[in-house]
Amino acid sequence: MTSTEHISQDLVDALLEVRAANDGKLDQYVIVDAARDPSSILHSHFEWDEANAAYRYQLEQAQTLVRRFEHTIEKKMSTGETVSVRIKTFSSNPEDTGWVLTEELLSSPERSVALLSRLRDEARGLRDKIDNYRIVAEFYSPAWKAASEAIEVALDEE
Fold first, then answer.
1. In terms of C-beta distances under 8 Å and separation of at least 24 residues, what long-range contacts does 18-21 make, across chains too?
2. What pTM was estimated for this model as a whole?
3. pLDDT tens, 15-26?
4. Is the pLDDT of residue 147 over 70?
5. How far apart are CA 40 and CA 117, in angstroms?
6. In Å, how far are 109, 125, 128, 140, 148 from 151, measured between CA atoms?
7. pLDDT by residue (tens digit) across 90-118?
8. Which of 32, 50, 98, 137 is buried deepest, with most CB atoms within 10 A?
9. Contact 94, 115 (CB under 8 A)
10. Is the dihedral of CA 55, 56, 59, 60 positive or negative?
11. Cα torsion at 85, 89, 91, 96 (round to 10°)?
12. pLDDT at site 56
């Protein structure tokens, strides 16, 4: 076992202790309460300077705000049918930090390729995560295998 694995296991053990001390409940509230104790292994994983913590929280709020917005794009097809698609209003800027309008990304061939590549990578990451859970979950429920296979087929159709 490496030292990183040892530290990680110590953190998992600490979280399990918090859970046990709270009648099987483990949520952000009981974790922060337990981490307030400076002798807790959890303590160093939190920002205790209130000004820094407030600023970090405000940054998270800004991210949440930007991610919240979607809008509908409609296009009349040659068949006369109107197709409506909902997209995020803002997307991560592939050239810098921050966000840009998703339609601006999609209107640039180079930037749209970067966006679609990133989305494919995210989908592959999700597929890998599902596969990992599927392997374990099959011990408990065969329905996981069917669901993960359906996702695999959908992703391969890209």
1. 18/42
2. 0.61
3. 999 999 999 999
4. yes
5. 42
6. 28, 12, 11, 19, 5
7. 988 877 778 999 988 889 888 888 888 88
8. 137
9. yes
10. negative
11. 140
12. 92
The 10 Å Cβ neighbour count of residue 113 is 12
Overall size of the chain counted in residues: 158
- Alpha carbon separation from 75 to 79, 84, 116, 147 (Å, rounded): 11, 7, 20, 32
Q: Measured between alpha carbons, how far apart are the two ends of the chain, in Å?
A: 40
Domain ranges of the chain: 91-156
The Cα–Cα gap between 128 and 152 comes to 10
Instruction: State how far the Cα of 48 lies from the Cα of 67, in Å rounded to an integer.
Output: 27
* C-beta separation of 97 from 85 below 8 A: no
pLDDT at position 130, please?
82
Helix (H) or strand (E) holding 72: strand 70-76
Task: Tell whether the model's pLDDT for residue 1 goes beyond 60.
Answer: no
Is-contact 127 158, C-beta < 8 A? no
